[in-house]
Structures are given as C-alpha cells and as structure tokens.
Structure to design on (609 residues):
C-alpha cells in the first residue's frame, strides 16, 4: 500500500513540475511549435513504430509473452552468414527483459532527435509519395531502421543480440546535426528517465547483501565493435544528408559532443580475452583512439573547411626544396633564385604585373578541381573536410571488414561420441571442461597476456544447423548456484533444459563433483564426473579420498603400510559406514572419520546459493 501511494506521489510531483515550468516559460515559441516544424503533429511517429516493433519481437518472436524474464535467445543471434534468421532478427531481439528495457529507454531519448533531423517534411522537391509526411514517418523511417539493423548484424563481430547497435546509429546520425542536444539527451536525459522509472517501479528499494557467482567484468559483456559500427553507420548517413541540406555545426560543438559521448558510453573500452578467467582492457589505447576519432569526425562534420597544409607552409616548401637543390642559385648572380614560369603560375611571384593573371589562373584551377579558391596564388590540394570524410569511411570499412572472417563461420559437428549429451531438436546440450573455445581464439598478444588456447568449461549449447555455439552456463556459475536452466527453441517453440551439480569437498583439496542434464519431462541424465580427490588428513597411517562413481560418491581408504584399498558409499545423513578399519560418521553435511576414539572431518557436501 505504501509503495502504491509513493508511486502516485512521485508521478504527481513530476507532472506538477512540468506544468509549473510550462506556465513560467516566457518564450513565444513553445516546445510543441519546435517539434511541429519538422515532425508531423510534433510526434516522432517513426520512433514509436520502431520501438513498438522491437517490443513485439521480444514478446511474440522470442516468446517473452510466455516468460517475460526468460526469452528464447539462442536462435535469434547473428551466428553466421549461413544462418539468415539470426542475421535478420538479432538487431531487434534481446537477451533479457532488462536488456530490452535499457535499449528502449536509450532509443526513446535519442531516436526522436535523429527522426527530427530527418524530418517528416522534405526540404526540397521530391516525388509526391515521398513528400507525404505519413509515408516519411511510418514507412520510410522504420524501413531505414530495419535496413540499418540488418547491416549492423551483417558486419558485427560475434553472435550479437540487441538493439544497441541501432541506438548508437541514432546517436551517430543525430550528433552530426544537433551535437549538444544529442549529448544532453544521451548523457543527462537517459539517466534521468532510468531513475524515474526505477523510482516508480520500486519507490523504496530493499537491498540484501549476498554473495554472487564469479562473473566477467561489465565491459567484457559489451559488443563494443557493434556499438562503434552502428555509430559510424549513422554518422556516414548523416554526412550524406548534411552534404545535400547544409546547416553544419561549429567545430567545437561537434568535437566536445563526440568526445564526451564516446567516453560516457564506453566506446574507449577495447578489450580481449586472456587465458582462463582473464580479461584484458586496453584503456590507454582506447582513450587515444577515441580522442583521435573525435578530431577526425570534427573535420568531416564541422562548418570549417580549410586546406590541410597551411598556406604559408605550402608557399615555403618550393623555396626550401629549390634552395637545397641549387645552393648557389639558379640563373642568378646574387645567390637568389629567379622565379620560374611554374612559380608564377603557383603565385609565388604574384606581385606586380603578374598578380591579376595569377589570380585568374588560380581561380580556373579551383573551378576545374572543385576546390575553393581562398586567395591569389593558393595551390589546390586536400581540404580538411575531404580528409575527414575519407578517414571516417576508412574507419567504417575497417570496423565492418574485421567481422567478415568471423561471420563466415561454419560450425562442424565435432562432438565427442563418448561424451554424454542431451539432444533437443537440432540442439546439442553438453557439459565440458577445458574444451576448445569455438568462438574466441588468440590474437597474438603474448607480450601482454597469453591468449592462445582459450578454453570453455560449463554447459555448452551447439547447433550445426544454425552454426551456433555458446557457453550457456559457466562451470563457475554452476558451482555457485548448483542448478541452472537453459532455454532453447525457435520460431513457435521453446524447450527448457535443466542442469544440476552435486559435489563433495575433501578437506584441503579440490572439490569432487558430478553433473546431470535433462529436458523437461525426462529423467536426469548423468553427463560428467570429475576426478577423485584425496583429503589432506592421515588417520592411523591411512589416507581417505572421495571418488565419483556413476552418479554416486564413494569413500576410498588406502593403507600406506600394506597398500590395501577399501571403498564404501558416502553414508546418508546421520548414518555411519565402515571401510578399511575406519568408521565414517555423517553429521548433517560433514563426514567424519573415527578411529580409536579420534574423530576427524574428511569431507563436506558442496553448498550452493
């Protein structure tokens, strides 16, 4: 009851503050007038259509309507060029409800700015059907978003899933025309909307501190290449539109907006995988790359367009080169170089009677090459905007090209015939330890970290039909939780596979454990058992080990004096068994060895959170 009252109160205060500010605002041009200038009725209809489509994909394609917090994800990742379903759907699918919500909020604050820059009303003469604001809003804009989404799936690195590539494309498009509003929306407004949403959903949050399973750092779960790819796709499209429409922002606005946006959104977080549970974050190189690209983008976008080589330096270079070649002059008795006809054409001797001729010749050269003349005798050459645009296109080509070798992946059926698996339609679910990682390989950074021979341990789901391979549950997470579920499926169907682990921890040594897998409605199937492990105790010159035995656990007693070996099953709770001259007494979850009145703990059952 209290939460409901607080929710209503929060909404009332927020709406009241908006009403008060609207009444106090003294400008004649209100927000709705600004919105209506480029949006039909002042509403970003295209954004609403797109976001509605993303929600529908989550609910009805990924079957989020059955379980809102556990959608079907594996078949909707961009696994390979040979799996079209994943390529088409990955940009509009999500891994979880939180993933969906975060991308919806991010898109809701930046996509309207991109749509506003596009506009529902054409700026020039276009065919009548394209001039219709409804067509531009609910047909052309959403179709463009779908096309960009498929493009990001085609050239994203790895089995990506999520709308975030398109969110970055919206930002890259919007930041070209409206750099500061885009920066405010993505850094300030987005965080405010998230905070407001959380305060409405949970006005009072009760947090209970509890342990958590080992996990990768947050930045290692981000498709950084996909985000950068989306941003540069949006940027290039905006540059094309800007070239036709004009209205370029100032250099400082572009530079500060791109720099702060890239830093705040983690585009500097370039990372890779090391051996085991090691992750490499190239923080320094990432910052350098972002700062450099901010300058490159500024050159391509801003309203300033200058020659790359300063005029004074350009004029001085021929003299320096000529002086080095002819130290005593060339055709001169006093050591000075005489002007050649080429010099006069270049404007190096533009004074006197030749000045007007050189001006005209320079202007003719500018017109012929498409360059702008900016004074008598100025040579034509690359300009800053040209260099910036070429650099942006090269960056986009590199970002897209690096994914092509990976996306031609053809997964071969190399499952070990002796390894127990669970088959669900075309999916194979198995438990592995130290198996070759099918998606990540070394990139030759041994000077920093050994990244060769990367392996996977845990529950692996694969499908040769879909060219899919994913480490669905890591061994560390399973050791923490004891049981997990994996959802597999496809359009119109879903199945759940369960995994369970049980283990014993010998005193002072590694855990001995076994794993079971089963599909809903089936009996658990024993699929994995670890090696046995010896307790770090010595009782009457005897050692005690825990040994897995086809779904059960046995105690093994070895006499160091005679070498005799005896085994018995781990007793049930509050029961006792004998083996090798020792009595084993189980109290709760601990097994004690008893001999001649001495009682020593030898192992305890693995506990899970």
């Amino acid at each position: 009851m209290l939460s409901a009252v607080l929710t209503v109160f929060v909404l009332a205060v927020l709406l009241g503050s908006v009403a008060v500010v609207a009444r106090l605002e003294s400008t004649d041009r209100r927000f709705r007038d600004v919105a209506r200038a480029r949006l039909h009725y002042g509403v970003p209809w295209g954004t609403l259509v797109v976001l509605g489509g993303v929600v529908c994909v989550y609910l009805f394609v990924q079957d989020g309507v059955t379980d809102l917090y556990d959608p079907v994800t594996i078949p909707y990742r961009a696994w390979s060029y040979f799996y079209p379903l994943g390529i088409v759907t990955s940009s509009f699918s999500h891994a979880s409800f939180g993933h969906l919500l975060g991308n919806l909020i991010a898109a809701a604050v930046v996509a309207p700015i991109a749509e506003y820059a596009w506009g529902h009303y054409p700026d020039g003469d276009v065919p009548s059907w394209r001039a219709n604001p409804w067509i531009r809003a609910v047909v052309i804009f959403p179709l463009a978003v779908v096309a960009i989404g498929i493009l990001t799936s085609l050239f994203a690195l790895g089995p990506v899933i999520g709308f975030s590539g398109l969110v970055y494309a919206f930002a890259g498009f919007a930041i070209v025309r409206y750099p500061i509003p885009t920066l405010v929306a993505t850094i300030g407004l987005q965080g405010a909307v998230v905070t407001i949403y959380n305060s409405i959903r949970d006005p009072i949050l009760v947090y209970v501190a509890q342990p958590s399973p080992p996990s990768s750092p947050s930045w290692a779960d981000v498709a950084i290449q996909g985000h950068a790819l989306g941003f540069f796709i949006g940027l290039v499209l905006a540059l094309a539109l800007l070239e036709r429409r004009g209205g370029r922002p100032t250099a400082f606005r572009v530079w500060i907006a791109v720099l702060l946006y890239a830093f705040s959104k983690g585009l500097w977080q370039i990372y890779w995988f090391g051996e085991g549970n090691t992750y490499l974050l190239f923080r320094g190189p990432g910052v350098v790359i972002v700062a450099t690209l901010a300058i490159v983008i500024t050159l391509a976008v801003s309203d300033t367009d200058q020659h790359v080589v300063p005029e004074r330096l350009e004029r001085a270079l021929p003299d320096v080169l000529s002086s080095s070649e002819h130290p005593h002059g060339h055709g001169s008795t006093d050591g000075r170089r005489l002007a050649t006809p080429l010099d006069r054409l270049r404007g190096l001797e533009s004074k006197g009677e030749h000045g007007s001729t050189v001006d005209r010749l320079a202007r003719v050269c500018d017109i012929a090459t498409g360059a702008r003349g900016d004074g008598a005798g100025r040579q034509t050459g690359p300009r800053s905007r040209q260099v910036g645009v070429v650099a942006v296109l090269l960056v986009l080509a590199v970002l897209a090209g690096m994914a092509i070798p990976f996306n031609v992946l053809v997964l071969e059926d190399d499952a070990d015939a002796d390894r127990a698996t669970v088959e669900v339609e075309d999916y194979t679910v198995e438990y592995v330890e130290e198996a070759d990682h099918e998606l990540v390989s070394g990139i030759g950074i041994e000077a920093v970290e050994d990244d060769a021979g990367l392996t996977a341990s845990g529950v692996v789901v694969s499908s040769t039909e879909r060219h899919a391979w994913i480490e669905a549950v890591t061994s560390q997470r399973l050791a923490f939780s004891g049981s997990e579920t994996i959802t597999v499926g496809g359009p119109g169907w879903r199945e759940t596979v369960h995994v369970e682990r049980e283990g014993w921890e010998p005193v002072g040594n590694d855990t001995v454990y076994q794993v079971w897998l089963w599909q809903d409605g089936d009996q658990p199937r024993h699929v994995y058992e670890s090696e046995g492990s010896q307790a770090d105790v010595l009782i009457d010159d005897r050692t005690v080990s825990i040994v897995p035995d086809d779904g059960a656990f046995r105690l093994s007693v070895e006499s160091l004096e005679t070498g005799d070996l005896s085994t018995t099953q781990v007793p049930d709770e509050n029961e006792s068994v004998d083996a090798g001259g020792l009595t084993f007494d189980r109290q709760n979850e601990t097994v004690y060895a008893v001999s001649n009145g001495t009682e020593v703990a030898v192992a305890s059952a693995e506990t899970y959170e």
Remarks:
- The two ends are 31 Å apart (CA to CA).
- Confidence is low (pLDDT under 50) at residues 329-333, 344-355, 367-377.
